[in-house]
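# nightly structure sweep
# worker-07 picked up a monomer target from the shared queue
# config: single-sequence mode, recycle default, output format = structure tokens
# input follows
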Amino acid sequence: MHVAIAGNIGAGKTTLTKLLAKHYKWEAQLEDVVDNPYLDDFYNQMERWSFNLQVYFLNSRFRQVLQIHQSGKEIIQDRTIYEDAHIFAPNLHAMGLMTNRDFENYSLLFQLMESLVSGPDLLIYLRSSIPNLVSQIHKRGRDYENSISIDYLSRLNERYEAWIHGYNKGKLLIVDVDNLDFVDNPEDLGSIINKIDAEIHGLF
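# output follows
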């Protein structure tokens, strides 16, 4: 079984992925942030490095999805291949930070990859307001994220909502995280687990 968690920067994807992996004894597939050779450069000079970064993420996530399907294991994935293609790359293109030529090249590459993989059995979307995202980003204190603007986060949020509205790859669970503290409040985590249980049992 393949479960994936989607959401904007700072929504709590990685944290929830780890908590659910521990609870269900699933294998966690985390986003490649530490070893990503482009992230620092990208946040310092977005226009120059946007295409490189997006292709790196696309390659990384495509590889992940292939491994997930080949493994036959129960896996929970932190962020999906669809988010790069439907949210991050189009946003960079719309902001003038990725050229038409690069965006077209990227889109064709994604379409080829998408034709070779299927969506997760369950997608969990973490919906968050901008103030909550900003608070979480500041709390974790990653240097390269200091330059992320509220405008950038707002644009991403709008694209997330549009993508989720038309999502049709499989089962979808939307979790509003603004008033949840699934790290320190066991009841909040429990309520998410109950909703996931209801969705999973509907899969069989």
